[in-house]
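Render alpha-galactosidase in 3D.
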Amino acid sequence: MSEIVIIDSGQLALSLRLPALGMPEILSFGAEPVEADSLFEIERSSRVNGMDIAVPSNVLLPTGGMGFFGWPAITGHRGGRDFVAQFGGWTVHRDGNQTVLKAVDSVARLGIAITLTAHVSGLISMATELSNLGDTDYQLDRCMAATFLAPAGDVQVMSFTGIWGREFQTRRELLGNGTWIQESRRGRTSHDRFPMLFIESETQIFGVTLGFSGNHQMVIDRTDDGQRLVHLGELFEPGEIVLKPGESYRSPIAYAGADSQDFHAFVRDELTQWPAGKMSPRPVTLNTWEGNYFDHQMDSLKAQATAAAELGIERFVLDDGWFGKRDNDTTSLGDWDIDARKYPDGLKPLVDHVTGLGMQFGIWFEPEMVNPVSELYKAHPDWALTIEGRPILESRTQLVLDLTRPEVSDYLFGKIDAVLSNHAVSYIKWDMNRDLTHAAGRDGKAKTSAQTRAVYALMDRIRAAHLNVEIESCASGGGRIDYGALKRTHRVWTSDCTDALERLEIQRGASVFVPPEILGSHISASPNHQTGRRHTLAFRALVAIAYHLGVELNPLELTDEERDELKVYIETYKRLRDLFHAPGASFRMEPLDGRYVWGAASAEKIVVIVAQGPQMVGEQPAPLRLPEQITQFGGQWRIKTVLPAEPKFIRISEGQKALLSGAVTFALSSAGLSGLPLPMLTPESALLLELEPIKGGKTHG
């Protein structure tokens, strides 16, 4: 019988058959692996008017030109020749949970290695390496990281789109007969085309994502028998990847998982590399951007830090404006020396003040960019990515530094290292505020792929030199959130938009692939700086509280009443963050009539956050039916705490008052079957419910 290779994570199983010639055939991809059977040895007849010998279409990384007429996952040529690839002589190399499949095309003189890993979290990952075994250059035009199989029949794809300030907007569509393609050429993950999908049919649901921060593509191609191949990989610029003799291309890693909890577990347990090997409780963070912008005054900043410590804030992050002559966003990027006008004695007095208050100190960098109005650009205009003869395209009055040049990377490392080495810095907010255009090096050739890897290398170098420093990935908000960036960072700035109403949808979408403790969510001022909306402090706080909580305002501008209220929410976050951020505890529900519900649950405590976004259309809200993830704990429960103390309800009955006051105990199973009959909230308001189990007793009410 043919050799069958099984990759089984416990949640997903990929079963492959290795042919004598051609790509590995996907026998099944789902919850259960296959066993060797004579059925798999039966050759299929070819398609009508097809080749005399049938060519399997459900294969990993199909190549074209030898009877496969679908979308090829690998293409390239050697000066116009060797444009067809057909690998054979497959070998299997196993090492623990990792399997490497290797083969050679002796005609095109290419080698391939496909690395498949079954992760303890339940994910399966795949990556591809293609090698030039010939004695002349080979131009690689396409090399996907992975292929996964979706079943025949009606299949729905959930993708993510958006813009700046409205990232992670979910969209669902039914796949047709054609090829579905999503591509990003922005040089970063982007706000509008995240490399993340969920595939859902009547018989199966699974998600896929590409761990890469540069140009990428995702393709869903329909095969002859109605099934679908889902391809993920890097998108090359023309002529970008040319392999010299003996050189290899290594793709990013693509991942597939059965559900959000498995993706969250992978990020927590395998992807994120924490200082000292373990995540500390996520500190409440004050970021100075919206409270100060470029107006840095030492006395005010010290006073803000003092006020922040009194509120219970644990990390103070100095945002943009501390370096060069940075009085606005048109100048000084690249000049990473402390501004002596604003800080005549350097940063140390502020850092010492912050750390003396018991808080961590963080600082903002945007290493990849340069302003044309800067000392760096004046000295080294050739360090920017440009194409000779083409207009120099600025975005946000910025150009992109060519990090593939060692002297550029060394300069940036030296500047960042000097700040970190001479100050007690625990945290970097690493920003990246423009897309890549005319991304060519001095030789005129495209550099987008190499630039992405050079950014990774600089991050890795910084982390290796400063093991206790955490990094936040920010790219105009959520423009670079992916598993390639998360491998090197510890937090993401989910969106530049801090409007709580907008954040309902942004955070719901981002939570599909990223656990809540990684997603930065801040309480900002009212009216909101991005939208002008006014929201209560309770609404702003409750929308943020389950994630990595922060504050994005000047605490000196709060009234005494606001300060006291904010303290309550910060104290509540600290009390509940171990539950909010516990493995497998978080949950979220689909919005219903503008009502968003999420939270976290254990056998000892359940926290439910209910937020009403737009105006509800129904006469009254449907009872809140808690998901099985919560009701599985069973027993009798009651509502122990409600925040705010007086939620903004449109109408409330006496029975509902009794329920919210804790006077009614109920079976958790009933909360799943019939639901909690909560009152209707006013638009753009929220409440937090803490439920506690009752030991014994009867159900009342």
